[in-house]
Amino acid sequence: MLHQLDSSQFRALTVAGDVTSLLPTLAPQQSDDPNTLLAKIIAAIGAAGFVDVTLTTDTSAYASGDVVADTQVIANACRAVNQPAILQSVMLVDKADQGAALDLHFFSANVSMGTENSAPSISDANALNYLGKIAIATDDYTDLTGCKVAHKVALGHLVKPATDTRDIYVAVVNGSGTPTFAADSLVLRLGFLW
């Protein structure tokens, strides 16, 4: 059941700044009473979605520390243009059944991590777009016989999109071993909270 607010409670809530930053994304109408607006806020908070990305990779064997997949777009990762999101979960499907330790590096711009099958090489200026890393360890995988799947949850990793977009970017670096992948062996399923 929806909690009923009277006008003074609603004004106190909005004056405190708890919801005013959400108002542009909620499309409030001047005729909205406090309870209608509260319903819109409740609908907006906790919204979630998945974005799938099939990573394109080099097909040669990788050395430890090599770039496996140079920077690639995660389209529509954020709910609205220029609005941040929370990366809450990562699932990596390894169709090549390698189960290698991999580091996922996230960026707020389309900047190169380096040449695939070589060590990372990123400029100081491009590093300013770095949003952080999620490490996939070898023991994060579940072996499903023909493939391996790694799943990381409850990440709470705040990301911001590239300017005037809803997109973020990801690059993948080999953490250890010498895995070999087909061009489309790695698929990411990213769970976002908006």
Structural features:
single chain; 194 residues; alpha+beta; Jelly Rolls; 6-stranded antiparallel beta sheet; 14% helix; disordered N terminus
Describe this structure as you would to a colleague.
The chain is an alpha+beta fold. The chain has two domains: 7-44, no CATH class; 48-193, Sandwich (Jelly Rolls), CATH 2.60.120. Helices cover 14% and strands 34% of the residues. Strands 1, 3, 6, 7, 8 and 10 form a six-stranded antiparallel β-sheet that branches. Strand 6 (141-143) and strand 7 form a beta hairpin. The longest helix is centred in the N-terminal third of the chain and has 11 residues, at 34-44. The protein is globular and about 60 Å long. Residues 1-23 have low confidence and may be disordered.
Short summary:
The chain is 14% helix and 34% strand. The protein has helices spanning 7-15, 23-26, 34-44, 124-127, and strands at 48-55, 67-74, 85-94, 102-107, 130-136, 141-143, 148-152, 157-159, 168-174, 186-193.
Radius of gyration over alpha carbons? 20 Å
Q: Kindly report how far apart the N and C termini lie.
A: 23 Å
Number of helices: 4
Strand content: 25-35%
Please trace the helix and strand order, writing H or E for each element.
Answer: HHHEEEEHEEEEEE
Q: Describe the biggest sheet?
A: 6 strands, antiparallel
Mind sketching the topology for me?
Layout: H1 7-15, H2 23-26, H3 34-44, E1 48-55, E2 67-74, E3 85-94, E4 102-107, H4 124-127, E5 130-136, E6 141-143, E7 148-152, E8 157-159, E9 168-174, E10 186-193
Antiparallel strand pairs: 1-10, 2-9, 3-7, 3-8, 3-10, 4-5, 4-9, 6-7
